[in-house]
Specification:
Strand content of chain A: 15-25%
Helix content of chain A: 25-40%
CATH class of the largest domain in chain A: Alpha Beta
CATH superfamily of the largest domain in chain A: HAD superfamily/HAD-like
Number of domains of chain A: 2
Number of strands of chain A: 16
Strand order of the largest sheet of chain A: 1-16-15-14-2-5-6
Radius of gyration of chain A: 20 Å
CATH topology of the largest domain in chain A: Rossmann fold
Mean pLDDT of chain A: 92
Low-confidence stretches of chain A: 1-10
Largest interface: A-B, 45 and 45 residues
CATH architecture of the largest domain in chain A: 3-Layer(aba) Sandwich
Shape of chain A: elongated
Oligomer: homodimer
Order of helices and strands of chain A: EHEEEHEHEHEHEEHEEEHEHEHEHEH
Largest sheet of chain A: 7 strands, parallel
């Protein structure tokens, strides 16, 4: 497995992408890892010039991988979203944190006779099932309620060996109690977080609580810290390296968030490109309080087309 | 205000309560602070000998105060619970974390034209209203749902200047989103936690997620830490001292939890008595990993009657 020493250039100020360094970047990289929201699309709208840019990169033999912390969809559901937006991306090119949770269990030889309790959406349940695991909870427990009475015993499945927590728009006390009991009372039960993003662009207009909210709730009730499988944890990267046999020094992570995408790329030793088409503005990047500097930055992914004269 | 230096005896091993030291304790103390659950009652059942013990302490001129981290009830609702169990305890003798939240705002001169958003139960809403504040949320928002659509704007009241978070059996995404937006977007908005107990005895049979669960969720989505007003924070103690003009060195905190009750008493410089009628067993107390030693311990509060030959 590839070493994951941080990129030594990460402390220098980011360089604006130009014709010259864009060419150098392309020549030095075999694979581009893209974050999706704020990079490929915003909400349900494709960002300008994406189809042409992806096409150009493919025509130059570059491998493309789409890495997202959003766990509400499975890879199949993501592939459909790409298709709806007119992009041809295969399921194998998509790495969502829902898939990462399933792969974490697979890689760590989670016993198939054990079950997984899900606080989160359909995406996690689908990925767990596709990987051959039995998933409980998730959308199934949306309407359930704990009975608040003396002498009430809340029954939980003693075969649950892992609780996976992700963004859950239908969070309720029943799910929190179920997950808490499994982690506190089932010996050796794992606590896995898809990611810990505090907020995310659930709508085009506002930031809403992200998976970090549900994960924080379970930290609070269990006094345990989770294993995080999404960005900026390098679990997905290590999995990718193993699968595609790539070197991180010949990869470039492209993202709109400094503390997840760029940090994720740097943690893994990749080159990094920040695009300003999402949550990060130029003034956030330049602020003295910001300690995370990508190798390069540009307004949007398709700038690369103009810079290379394609 | 009284100094709150830790009790210097707190690192010595706890002494079993005996006739001799029980008499010394009584002579050296003017007020007893009692935790309720696991000390006075367990769920809906009074613990043996409580009425006679409280009567004896009152007859000796001791002041009694009941301090609970449970925020689901207001002080009026607590006084009713005491009455139902056959105990005569006045509202003024009760300090719940719901009351503490209201008093924190009062003491810190929270502007009365500002509003308070509540993630928690009726108890918090009642105490805030009794203290003259406008409370939003709480039981009112149990059935509300956020609309997960592009271009959906979640409207929150810009006059909310504090979010109070306590145990909420009806937690949902709407409340988490409302509280998160107030804290993240309303300038200077306070984040107040009634307490951070990870779990509590909501039924006689099991531990269920406590306020620490909901507080953890808001920490996760806001990347902020709360002001805690319940045990083991000394806010309630400082308020008590100011109100009753007592000296902490002449107070004894009686509780069943090492990390809230006994730590709370020690943080404030009180004498401390652990009772084994709640969550702490003798083996937890004696375990080398336990760093919190009360001054005294005994099985249950009423042991004091026998020891004093009353």
């Amino acid at each position: 497995m590839e070493s994951t020493t941080p990129n030594p250039t990460s402390t220098a100020a980011a360089e604006l992408l130009t014709g010259a360094n864009a060419k150098l970047l392309l020549d030095s990289v075999d694979a581009f890892l893209f974050d999706c929201d704020g990079v490929i699309w915003k909400g349900d709208k494709l960002i300008d010039g994406i189809p042409e840019t992806l096409e150009m990169l493919r025509s130059k033999g570059k491998k493309l991988v789409f890495v997202t912390n959003n766990s509400t969809k499975s890879r199949i559901q993501y592939a459909n979203k790409f298709r709806t937006l007119g992009l041809s991306v295969s399921q194998d090119e998509i790495f969502s944190s829902s898939f990462a949770a399933a792969m974490y269990l697979k890689v760590n030889q989670f016993p198939p006779q054990k079950k997984v309790y899900v606080i989160g959406g359909e995406g996690i349940v689908q990925e767990l099932q596709l990987a051959g695991f039995t998933a409980l909870g998730g959308p199934e427990d949306v309407e359930k309620r704990a009975q608040w009475k003396s002498n009430c015993l809340f029954e939980h499945d003693k075969d649950v060996g892992a609780v996976v927590v992700g963004l859950d728009p239908d969070i309720n006390y029943y799910k929190l109690q179920y997950g808490t009991l499994c982690i506190r009372e089932n010996p050796g039960c794992l606590f896995i977080a898809t990611n810990r993003d505090s907020v995310g662009h659930m709508t085009d207009l506002q930031e809403w609580p992200g998976a970090g909210c549900m994960v924080g709730a379970i930290c609070g009730s269990t006094e345990r810290e989770p294993v995080v499988v999404g960005k900026p944890s390098t679990f997905m990267m290590e999995f990718l390296l193993q699968k595609f046999n790539l070197s991180t020094s010949r990869m470039c992570m492209v993202g709109d968030r400094l503390d997840t995408d760029i940090l994720f790329g740097q943690n893994a030793g990749c080159k990094t490109l920040l695009v300003l088409s999402g949550v990060t503005t130029r003034s956030i990047l330049d602020d003295p309080s910001n300690k995370i500097q990508p190798d390069y930055y540009t307004n949007k992914v398709s700038d690369i087309l103009g810079l290379l004269g394609e």
